[in-house]
Design brief:
Strand order of the largest sheet: 1-2
Oligomer: single chain
Structural class: mainly alpha
Helix content: over 70%
Number of domains: 2
Number of helices: 6
Order of helices and strands: EHEHHHHH
Amino acid sequence: MIIAWMVLTVIPLAALAPTRCDDPLTAVQDATCAISAELRTQVVSAPTAGVLAPDRVVAPSGAVGSAFDRLEEAQQRLEQDRMEQLATGVEEARARAADLASEQREMEADMDRLAEARAGPGTEAGRRLFELKETMQEEIADLEREIHRLRDEARADQREVSDRLDDALRTIEDDKLKERFRYSRGLISIQDREFMREFEAETTRVVEELQEELQRAMDAI
């Protein structure tokens, strides 16, 4: 029979409309678009004897198989690219937390030296620490937003990564990390040196815990 060399899979004529491949897509998405357009071209050029119904045609099995193999490869490349972007995002978040932990350890030492010198917030050193605490609070808030984005991105098919990122978010929220930086600005002038030391040491512990949780998220990818 004329259609013996054709597969039984049918493709609606409505799907054969011209396809543009000039959208601003990634290289992998462009490849996928191009393969789809090529597949439509092959189907349209198939012998009209393959018509099974007024709105359906059958494509040559060889052409369809080859095109779909290439389409599957492009989709795999797209998924790999997505995973690499996720890994990069988590690693950057971990590095930011590591920088914050380092800054907080320095802050802890600076606060102790300031208290020992009985220097208040009106001194140059006091003003510098006050401004630094404001900057660190803003950095924590921005990092929290980025972790939320990464968590949502991983939730679909990277459940363990998503769970580890949830742990990081809970550390920021449950331990009131943003609020700790805001409150600790008032400790620059506090007379209770022991309380200040304990508070700054606990803040350091929380930031280091955040860094460790982001490392666990990275390890889960």
